[in-house]
């Protein structure tokens, strides 16, 4: 049978544990969320825009230089005069000029396409003749057809000498002195070189960096970029595409399959592209999370230690309370409450097992006379002495309690009435042969016993009544003896 006091203590400890751990978890998680949100705000409002500014500034140095060179070439009087005055009669002059541009500015290659002769010049030779029927030359006629408000275009197309290799071209219109279109000049930039720049920025700033055009197509990216080449097709980012492409720049947040991504955009008007700088996780966020886990571990450890001490403390207090509630203070044996509980357990076991159970009532002879003659202190010494002898004489399976005053009850499990009577007679002889020493005298003590065997469904009161009757008979017969109810 479960101890209800133990169950109550266990429930209380479990409830307190859950409350303590829940409170600690809430406090720790709240602190983590506040710190993480502060870090995200700092990244979104300051760090990420600053990175975007730095990247933009470096792009101006690394990528806007070809625009400056192509503009310089388009306004060079040599180019104009060579077309208008010399009428392209000396192709070697243009080839030398383009070679000097490459040497002077360390460009990948420069070019000039004449509208009059449709010749395409590079630093080595006249490479080809441009044709309206050739798909590879479509770029030339698209740029020529542009309005006067746009002087140059940047696009990516196959290298004229190696169609399998993609390059970026800065294509600048060349106009004569009256503003008439006479050709296109410009600079070719290796896509690999630009990607190397992007990857340099990504390593330096620990961000994802790429470029999109005004349709949302990804035009330049590093080797680690593994997403669709159109932001309208990217999870999470597709919902922001319209907002991104209709403003010059801004800060955004989106979820990419459960991963929070911070994004800063900036329009680069010279290229008509958007610079995209993303950050999904700051290194400090991992530090914050590790700190959270460490704090939770420390908190759980401290909580476990605290709860263990609480368990031991409550257990100690509970055992003390249980001892006080179930033990007679004077003798240290069971009191009435504990004895009644013990009887119910033994009675239930005997009913299940058809076992034997007997009870004895023990009463100290002439106890009132002892109190009156020697004092209550001596009487207490006598009661303690009798309780000690009962415990020492009976079996470990027998249960004894102080029922009140100078009366004791004994439950003898597995004993028939006659066996219980024999044990009580032995106990009476042991007590008779002992003495109790007090400050005033040595007291001889005897006891009278009444024994009854438990019957069927009989309750405790009925069993005590039957044993009490034979106890009275023992006292009437001269005391210092034991009798059993037939």
**Runs with pLDDT <50, length 5+?**
none
How big is the Rg? Answer: 52 Å
According to CATH, what is the topology of the largest domain? Answer: Alpha-Beta Plaits
Decide which structural class fits the backbone.
alpha+beta
What would the principal axes of the Cα set say about the shape? rod-shaped
Number of strands: 18
Tell me which CATH architecture of the largest domain applies here. Answer: 2-Layer Sandwich
The chain-level mean pLDDT equals: 84
The first-to-last residue Cα distance is: 33 Å
What would CATH call the homologous superfamily of the largest domain?
Answer: Reverse transcriptase/Diguanylate cyclase domain
The tally of domains stands at 4
- Tell me the major beta sheet: 6 strands, antiparallel
Helix share, percent: 40-55%
Percentage beta strand: 15-25%
Strand order of the largest sheet: 3-2-1-6-5-4
Which CATH class of the largest domain applies here?
Alpha Beta
Count the DSSP helices: 13
């Amino acid at each position: 049978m479960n101890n209800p006091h133990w169950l109550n203590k266990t429930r209380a400890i479990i409830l307190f544990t859950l409350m303590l751990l829940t409170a600690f978890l809430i406090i720790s998680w709240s602190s983590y969320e506040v710190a993480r949100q502060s870090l995200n705000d700092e990244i979104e409002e300051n760090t990420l825009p600053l990175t975007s500014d730095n990247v933009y500034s470096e792009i101006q140095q690394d990528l806007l230089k070809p625009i400056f060179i192509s503009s310089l070439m388009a306004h060079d009087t040599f180019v104009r005069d060579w077309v208008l005055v010399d009428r392209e009669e000396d192709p070697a002059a243009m080839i030398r000029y383009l070679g000097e541009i490459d040497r002077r500015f360390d460009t990948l290659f420069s070019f000039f396409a004449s509208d009059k002769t449709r010749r395409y010049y590079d630093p080595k030779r006249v490479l080809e003749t441009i044709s309206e029927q050739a798909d590879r030359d479509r770029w030339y006629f698209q740029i020529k057809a542009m309005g006067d408000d746009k002087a140059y275009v940047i696009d990516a197309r196959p290298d004229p000498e190696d169609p399998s290799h993609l390059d970026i071209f800065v294509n600048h219109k060349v106009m004569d002195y009256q503003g008439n279109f006479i050709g296109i000049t410009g600079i070719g930039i290796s896509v690999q070189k630009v990607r190397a720049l992007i990857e340099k920025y990504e390593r330096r700033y620990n961000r994802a960096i790429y470029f999109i055009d005004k349709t949302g197509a990804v035009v330049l990216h590093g080797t680690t970029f593994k997403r669709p080449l159109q932001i309208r097709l990217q999870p999470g980012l597709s919902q922001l595409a319209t907002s991104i492409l209709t403003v010059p720049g801004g800060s955004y947040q989106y979820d990419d399959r459960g991963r929070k991504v911070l994004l800063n955009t900036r329009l680069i008007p010279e290229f008509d592209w958007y610079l995209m700088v993303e950050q999904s996780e700051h290194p400090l966020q991992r530090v914050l999370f590790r700190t959270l886990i460490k704090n939770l571990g420390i908190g759980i450890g401290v909580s476990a230690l605290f709860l263990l001490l609480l368990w031991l403390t409550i257990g100690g207090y509970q055992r003390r309370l249980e001892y006080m509630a179930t033990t007679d203070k004077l003798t240290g044996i069971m009191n009435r409450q504990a004895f009644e509980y013990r009887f119910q357990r033994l009675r239930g076991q005997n009913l299940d097992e058809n076992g034997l159970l007997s009870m004895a009532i023990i009463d100290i002879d002439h106890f009132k006379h002892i109190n009156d003659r020697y004092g209550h202190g001596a009487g207490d010494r006598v009661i303690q002495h009798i309780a000690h002898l009962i415990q020492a004489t009976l079996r470990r399976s027998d249960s004894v309690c102080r029922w009140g005053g100078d009366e004791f009850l004994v439950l003898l499990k597995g004993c028939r009435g006659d066996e219980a009577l024999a044990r009580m007679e032995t106990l009476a002889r042991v007590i008779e042969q002992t003495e109790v020493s007090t400050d005033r005298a040595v007291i001889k003590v005897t006891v009278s016993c009444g024994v009854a065997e438990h019957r069927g469904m009989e309750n405790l009161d009925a069993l005590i009544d039957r044993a009490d009757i034979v106890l009275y008979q023992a006292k009437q017969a001269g005391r210092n003896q034991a009798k059993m109810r037939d």
